[in-house]
Amino acid sequence: MVQRLTIKPGVPLSEQPNVIGMNRWHPSIPPVASIKPGEEIILETLDFLDGQIANDDNPEDVRKVDLTRAHPLTGPIYVEGAEVGDLLVVDILDIGYITPFGFSGIFSKENGGGFLTDYFPDAAKAIWDFHGIYTTSRHIPGVRFPGLTHPGLIGTMPSIEMVHEWNRREAPLAAEGKAKPPYPPTAFLGGLKGDSFDQAAKEACRTVPPREHGGNTDIKNISIGSRIFFPVFVKGALFAMGDLHFSQGDGEISFCGAIEMDGYSHLHFDVIKGGMKKYNLKQPIFVPGPNDPHFEKWLIFEGISVEDGVNYYLDATVAYRRACMNAIEYLQNFGYTGEQAYMLLTAAPVEGRIGGIVDIPNCACTVAIPTGIFDQNILPT
Length: 381
Prior knowledge:
This protein is an alpha+beta fold. The protein contains six helices and 22 strands. The protein starts with a strand and ends in an 11-residue tail after the last strand.
């Protein structure tokens, strides 16, 4: 019998009938389950925004969302025998949705925004209905595609020394509004209570960025059949995951960008003793699964590191932003609004690439859209 940690869909993490998770990183958070190497477990997880988004046509909930509650994670899971310096081996055997719909959206500029917030400052929302491996949206008509389901956020627990280092190095950025510092009022630290909770909440790291332990990597190819090798920084590894995506384009450019969902993940665990030193690994590595959606034709948009008359030196961020905007402006020729095209790029299985990063002064990036997801021909004629 495989152990299963269950959720009540749509109910915030702090109101779940059982303590099943956390929304911060701190090694003092007690484990919610334990497992031995060679065993399997099924983890159910809440959506990225902790049940704040409704299945309706009103984007007001996206506009007013409390982002300090983001990323309710299921865990931590204590892996018996895992010690500092080992590698935790996680095989994703299956991922699926619990409720038959998900959402994507655009955060307003006043509430965090996204990659293209200067061009799209207002909130918007798309609800996606799931039909097996396929999805459609009443808010972006004429599109249907298979999802590549994956966890946006997955990782092992940092040591207390890492927590302090992360806070130290991110503090200058947080002072400029470019990082998220600890925020005790909405911290949920599993079963931690009293003075222990108060102390941990002051320093527990927010889950927004990826870091050395994995975290919010948003890599769509970590999917069914993938094997991930995580560094172990604390005894028992203390693994956690959440933020499941039905589908996502490379970059998750609108930030509320993947098709977010309540879901489950069926996992197998193992341990490589001394693996960090043996393979000189400081961050996770992974082997993609074999189940990528297959598309025969793509339309590829290029962007270079030139924006608003300014030539940036080998700036991949500017080049990728321009590729995205070129694609969005093109799709408006086929009946889509800019907001619809933006949400499509962030939710569909779009491929992003760095074409060249050595040809001074311009970097070139590309965004590739599978043409088969549309019910009309989007090629120039």
